[in-house]
Amino acid sequence: MQTRDAILLAAVFLGSVTAGLVATQSLGQPGGQSGTEETVFTVGGLVDGENDIATASFDNRSVDLLFEDDAEARMYLDLDQDGGADIELDGLNRSGAVQQTTETVTLGDRSYRLTFEYRDNSTTTGEAYMNLRTAIPLD
Question: How far are the Cα atoms of 20, 24, 61 from residue 81, in angstroms, in the given order?
């Protein structure tokens, strides 16, 4: 009888864990992405003088990340994806160490806090990059 009790207890435990995982997945935002889930979109790390572009999609919206790697890399956001730089990320620390910066943008009827990770060294080209780490909707 102890074996049967142990099997029943194990089945109840596994059922509880499975139900918890299903509930956690279904409580996220549409598309299964929560507002704080980290999603990484990378742009940069190119040969000197080249431009780069990456499209970051989140919460059924998209923005383009534009990147120019010169002596000081220039990093932009194209909010309407028309090929133009709508916002330049400025005030960046160009020490060559990995840094973070945030930018608040409005896309459609919703605002987002975008967190970027980047690296740039003002004396070296070809080593800079930018990642969009998180896009958190602001209510």
Answer: 39, 33, 11
